[in-house]
């Protein structure tokens, strides 16, 4: 079950968050290869975030998945989630950080980052 947790210093008042949830859910499911009904997305706005020493629009996100993560998937997630945040919340790609974590790494499987 992939879980995408997004925090931003941008206020979500008046923002169409439904489209963010929808696009992020579809993107994560498609990129990782899991069914949409297994994807969880959390979105928190107005979080105190300083990036590069200033408080201009920025976001931190973390995605945790049980399998399905490799270096190509990681790059696609960063690009796609960054695009959604840029389009929907006007957060520059240079002010977005995504932490990707596969819970199966280190177990006896063939998954490598």
From TrEMBL:
GO CC entries: extracellular space
Cited InterPro entries: Macrophage_inhib_fac, Tautomerase/MIF_sf
Name listed for the protein in its UniProt record: Macrophage migration inhibitory factor like
GO molecular function: phenylpyruvate tautomerase activity
Taxon lineage: Eukaryota, Viridiplantae, Streptophyta, Embryophyta, Tracheophyta
SUPFAM superfamilies linked to this entry: Tautomerase/MIF
Family: Belongs to the MIF family.
Species annotation: Actinidia chinensis var. chinensis
């Amino acid at each position: 079950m992939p879980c995408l947790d997004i925090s931003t210093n941008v206020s979500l008042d008046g923002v169409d968050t439904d489209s963010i949830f929808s696009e992020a859910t579809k993107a994560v499911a498609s990129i990782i290869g899991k069914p949409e009904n297994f994807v969880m997305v959390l979105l928190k706005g107005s979080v105190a975030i300083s990036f590069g020493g200033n408080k201009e629009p920025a976001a931190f996100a973390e995605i945790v998945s049980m399998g399905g993560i490799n270096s190509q998937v990681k790059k696609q997630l960063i690009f796609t989630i960054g695009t959604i945040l840029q389009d929907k919340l006007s957060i520059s790609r240079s002010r977005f950080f995504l932490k990707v974590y596969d819970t199966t790494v280190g177990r006896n499987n063939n998954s490598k980052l």
